[in-house]
Amino acid sequence: MIHFKKELFFLEHKAPISCQPISDNEMLYLNGLLVQRYGINKSINGNFFKVLQDKLSYKKDYEGINSSSEIETVLQDLALLNDSEAFLIWNYPDEIDKFDLSYLIRYWEDIWFSISDEVVGVFFPVMDRIIIITHYNVVYY
Predict the structure, then answer these.
(1) Could you give the CA distance from residue 74 to residue 76 in angstroms, rounded to a whole number?
(2) Does residue 106 lie in a domain region?
(3) pLDDT tier at 8 (50, 70, 90 boundaries)?
(4) Three-state SS sequence of 49-106
(5) Is residue 4 part of a domain?
(6) Domain containing 114: what range?
């Protein structure tokens, strides 16, 4: 996550944001899933989201994905609320943050800025699913 978002979160909530980088084992698992299921490896050279978007089978438009209630609706609609954590992929493979899913939903407005964030991948490790959320309120899954 970009440093300025962490600073804004701290100013707003008087506490640091609760996220951490994924572990080496989690990265190995994610890499393996991306290679096996989608044919994507770490040498994708900045085209990760475009390549993944082309490989995902479904696309759905939403009214908005900017508030906690809106992201919760999206995740409920896609049957993804049963996972306990989520990996936010800002830039694969270099910028991936791990969040407790309930925390992510609660503080979504402090994490996702649709004005400056164009796209984010969200991997649900227990469910073994990945989605792409775009700034134009479309989810690929």
Answers:
(1) 5
(2) yes
(3) confident
(4) HHHHHHHCCCEEECCCCCCHHHHHHHHHHCCCCCCCEEEEEEECCCEEEEEEHHHHHH
(5) no
(6) 22-140
